[in-house]
Write the structure tokens for this entry.
Amino acid sequence: MTDVTLIEYEGMIRLLPFFTIFMVMALLEIKFPRRILDQNKALRWWGNLSLVAFNTMVVRVLFIALGTSTIAMAWWVGSYGWGLLPLLHLPVVINLVLAVLLMDLVIYWQHRLFHTMPWLWRLHRVHHADRNLDVSSGLRFHPLEIVLSLLIKLSVIVLLGAPALAVVIFEVVLNGMAMFNHANVRLPLVIDIRLRYFLMTPDAHRIHHSTMAKEYNSNYGFNLSWWDRCFGSYRTQPEKGQLGMSIGLPDYQNAPTEKIIWMLRLPWKQ
């Protein structure tokens, strides 16, 4: 598939896996729930998915303003041979794999940064304030965080000279894994243990949404678990167990966290 074809069918390439994974995880949540959710699911989904729709419009406006998308940027950079990876003259497959791994590593450190810097944490709190966790939580981010993340991705694509195909693979995998590991799904223990060697499973990532700071400041990976293991931020189990742990942020346990207006205003709340 050529870069031009990727740009031409970008929307379909993104949306088809997105809706497929979303529906599969939503159905598995019904069939094999991990925890009993104590909020009205319809209201939560209305709020979370309304925020997704709003963010989609924001990103589209930004793409128009910048005159590019991540895939188009990769094609443009590639046409000039810019970036670090082209300097290595690696085989195509190795170049693709390395680009995907490096972009995933950047997302890991970006996530840690959003937990470390106070003004970035104000934005990221929108994601963590959800008092229940399911597939829709993986899509719940403040629009300003979405914009910053997009600008970081564009910068990394330029720096690395990441191939357009690698960018497509990375974004499809990242979105799919975010929905997978936020899902309220009970995996068989033997499968969970084996997947954890290289992926963030729902049980592993749920720890990151604990109300306890020492737990929500761990397991940052959206995709690979390697980075948390390598950089000392991996936690195997929550202190109170998967069923006993509380989800969300301590200060907002009684707040209307499912309402989109509340989410949009949260960064400016004390």
In short: The chain has a mean pLDDT of 93.
